[in-house]
Specification:
0% strand; mainly alpha
């Protein structure tokens, strides 16, 4: 993900929107899978007593995922990753609060 492809003037708006819809579906599926994994982690943290928020782990994730990002989207991508991590923490907290 080191280079962003520019607009292709030969494609129609509808064609590009179809591709965006396809990518959005991939994101939705990946997000659901990630949250299911976060639920598994919550159960392990319940047993081990580990805290939900682990800033060192989150920093590792952010650094690993953003190191090769295209400069023009790196800050936005980092914001997205931070939001996903925040949502994962909230989800784990809800799971742990149920019992």
């Amino acid at each position: 993900m080191t280079e962003i492809q520019g607009a292709n003037e030969n494609r129609s708006l509808d064609e590009i929107r179809k591709d965006i819809d396809r990518v959005d579906h991939v994101i939705k599926t990946a997000f659901a899978e990630r949250m299911a994994l976060a639920a598994e982690i919550a159960e392990i943290k319940r047993v081990s007593g580990a805290p939900v928020y682990q800033p060192d782990r989150e920093k590792q994730i952010i650094d690993k995922l953003t190191k090769d990002s295209a400069p023009e989207i790196k800050a936005s991508y980092e914001s997205l990753i931070r939001e996903i991590l925040r949502l994962s923490r909230e989800y784990q907290e809800r799971i742990l609060d149920r019992t």
